[in-house]
Amino acid sequence: MTTGIGARVKRREDKRFITGKGKYTDDVRTENQAYAAFVRSPVAHANVKSIDKSAALEMDGVIDVLDGHQLTGDGIGNIICGWAVTSKDGSPMNMGAWSALATQKVRYVGDAVAVVIAETQQLARLAAEAVDVEYEELPVVAFADKALKDGAPQIHEEAPGNLIYDWEIGDAAKADAGLAEAVHVTEMEITNNRLSPNPMEPRSAVATYDEAEDHYTLYTTSQNPHVARLVLSAFYNVAPEHKLRVIAPDVGGGFGAKIYIYPEEITCLWASMKTNRSVKWTADRSEAFVTDAHGRDHISTAKMGFDADGRITGFKVDTIANLGAYMSLFSSSVPTYLYATLLSGQYDIQNLHANVRAVYTNTVPVDAYRGAGRPEACYLVERMMETAARELGMKPAELRAKNFIREFPHETPVIMTYDSGDFDANLAQAEEAADVNGFPARREEAAKRGKLRGLGYSCYIEACGIAPSAAVGGLGAGVGLWESAEVRVNPVGTIEILTGSHSHGQGHETTFAQIVAERFDQPIENISIVHGDTDKVQFGMGTYGSRSGAVGMSAIVKAMDKVEAKVRKIAAHQLEASEDDIVIEGGEVKVAGTDKALGWHEIGLAAYTAHNLPPDMEPGLKESAFYDPSNFTFPAGTYICEVEVDPDTGTTEIVQFTASDDFGTIINPMIVEGQVHGGIAQGVGQAMLEQVIYDEDGQLITGSYMDYTMPRAADLPNFSVHHASTVCPGNPLGMKGCGEAGAIGSPPAVINAITDAIGNNDLAMPATPQNVWRAYQAASAKQAAE
Amino acid sequence: MTKVSLTVNGKPVARDVAGGTLLSEFLREDLRLTGTHIGCDTSQCGACVVHVNGKAVKACTTLAASLEGADVTTIEGLANGGLHPMQEAFKEHHGLQCGFCTPGMIMSGVDMVTRYKAEGRELTQEAIRHELEGNICRCTGYHNIVKAVEDAASKM
Ligand code: FES
Ligand code: FES
């Protein structure tokens, strides 16, 4: 079948996007539309002494100016982090209070203190400038390591010394013993640079309060509208769930930044009730830089020991994670359960220990960004492996292969149970596709042109579809991580799939339909996918952590199982056959081996007319399912990057980037390749271009596209993308997930390639021409001295 | 307020606009042509690219009042019924994911192909990447966008 599993079906959602008919939140305009603009702190840390609204309130077109005292006075709750991480001494994490509009204190540049509601967006912004806030400035700490120093400015009363938690995983004594017996120890200090996710569509919210019904509607740029409704209702007391509808229409990219429920959405909903107007807010890019949760920002030291044979004897990691000024929704889980649990990489490491301290700083809150913790783990492990190989005089691939896990299931010392994989296969496929054997000749040729050519590997493993719910609950998660689906077969036989997953670029309207087309052998045109509206879809946990395939599609499969069971019963009854003999084939429901058959639409009609159903069967043909996975899934693969560095300028060109991924079953290779391309581009962005920079005063230096370097077309090569898959045993379709792998696997491959080219392992991300040039100069000077 | 008369997607339009109104706002808010997107505030991302008198411009840095008599084409008006070869190519080559940058990418793509053809220059992959300097996409990694533009060039 050309539209089933494995087919490169062109996307069904494309037409509206290529013709300008997509409907994003900022495209929504309601009848009594008013506009919100936020008054934001220009300083990183201060007491709010007073807020003078009088000048703003006098301006034409200003409807109201609202502040945090009014907000908290109306019972709107503080913003919380939904994952409770416990410190190694057993104490709970130290979470400071976070009000959607600050009342007493501001803690980062951009912290909102008031909101102006006006007739137009321009007026609202002008009036926001006229709100006079008196700040009493306090000392600032913008960097994680400094925040932990004695005498550092105290950011939250609840977190003495700015320490949120001091957490560990693995066995420290065993790791120490392993390192003690090593014949070689590789030691590195590794920083994972702070990034801004930058989906191209800025965040936006349109909130409408209906006084007559006492009901709220929120259009918002969300990856998970049901989670937004749950949190807005249960924790922030904006409205009870049955009085709140959340719609996430077309969403222009997420990458994690659109998981969380931010102050702006809360405030717009509340302000809509206060002013009895529909309130709209859309960030401009500068506002996005100071309000969208940032990602990464780790400082680590690591030691990895090897025996004479190159086998890893022990691995110890100490990490400081910057969580910014407030704890965002999933922030606590990122540097712990999504990071340290992946530090075993693809390797059989028996003695492993990681310690993580999470700290407050006067910066934008930090949370999950594409990969969330796993890129930090992968970068650390893969830079260690490559560096160790160089120190040991071994080939990087050989050192890795010596330590590969080859038997599954494999339990790591950091609580993961890898279920499947064939790391040798991915390595071999990537090496062949990258023509690693031809590299020495290419290096020589480049040298003749005065260029330094380098090759870098990354053998990544990650974990997707966080689950099962009971297990993550045991680790502190405040939500379950299942997914739901409803399959409706209409009387005419067309099919609607309602899913709790959310598509913001992933192509669910195509891939989800493919699995249904295959299962019921129906034309894909007769299948539609419904998502993104809490009034339509029963419930759902949304899309992040590459979970839509392994978890979201599994829920659809489970609901289809139920539909199929009913279809068989109806057909068996009407065709007077045994249920076991019924097959779905060629768009019909048949008795195997006979010419007795019913059209698919006839089954639909029979179910709804209910004229001739088996005794006791309920009419209708619609089933729902909730699917809770039994384990994470473990996508893995090998990435190989080849670069050329100009030694005079430090300019680096990626001449070849090769990926071999194991994503398990692939539904639509075209879409999967697109996910890998986009992920690698973000990974290359992290490795070579992107960095959020704060100065000592907590001022954001990189607050626009003039200063924050987004990867552009000319920065990137074509990608050579391949698959060598093993089936995931944990879910019915055998899927592992593909959304984040590119961003996880690529940064170490790039940096390993550049460090290979310049002959210096000491190179930090982003590898800008200046950083590369300096590192090369340092290496050359050292060589000359020797 | 200035009165401005222009043609948008082939239709005459006359409106009073404030002096500071950007073309992007004018299209999105006054004409409700929301296919033109706003992705930045520093004229860097290209989500807002439209054609004015046949040339690509960033609508976020063009004043509506300056367009007296101009002929403006937005993504909504690019094809006269059906799809433009550039639109077809983006779909065919999976040149879009979230779709937010797409209208600007397509309008820039059409512009560069037209220019290169007029100048008799070959639009290589390298040239396409270079020409996309002013358009940012966060989703696709550009690989498939480049393929789409290259393919459309052969069909335009
Ligand atoms: S919105 Fe015009 S360039 Fe970004
Ligand atoms: S497709 Fe999402 S930004 Fe380009």
Key terms:
heterodimer, A: 786 residues, alpha+beta, Aldehyde Oxidoreductase, domain 3, Aldehyde Oxidoreductase, domain 4, 3 domains, seven-stranded mixed sheet, five-stranded mixed sheet, 20 helices, 28 strands, globular, B: 156 residues, Ubiquitin-like (UB roll), DNA polymerase, domain 1, 2 domains, 5 helices, binds FE2/S2 (inorganic) cluster
Written description of the protein model:
The complex is a heterodimer of chains A (786) and B (156). Chain A contains 20 helices and 28 strands. The mean pLDDT of chain A is 95. Chain A has 786 residues and is of the alpha+beta class. Chain B folds into 2 domains: 2-78, Beta-grasp domain (Ubiquitin-like (UB roll), Roll); 85-155, [2Fe-2S]-binding domain (DNA polymerase, domain 1, Orthogonal Bundle). In chain B, a hairpin with a 2-residue loop joins strand 3 and strand 4 (55-58). Chain B is globular. The interface between A and B is large, with 57 and 52 residues. The site of one FE2/S2 (inorganic) cluster has 11 residues of chain B, from loops.
Briefly say what this structure is.
Chain A contains 20 helices and 28 strands.
Number of domains of chain B: 2
Strand percentage of chain B lies at 15-25%
Any idea how many domains of chain A?
Answer: 3
Number of helices of chain A: 20
Largest interface: A-B, 57 and 52 residues
Distance between the termini of chain B: 40 Å
By oligomeric state, this entry counts as heterodimer
Percent of residues in beta strands of chain A: 15-25%
Architecture of the largest domain in chain B, CATH level 2? Roll
Strand arrangement within the widest β-sheet of chain B reads 2-1-5-3-4
The string of secondary-structure elements of chain B, in order, is EEHEEEHHHH
* Helix/strand/pairing category of chain A: alpha+beta
Radius of gyration of chain A: 27 Å
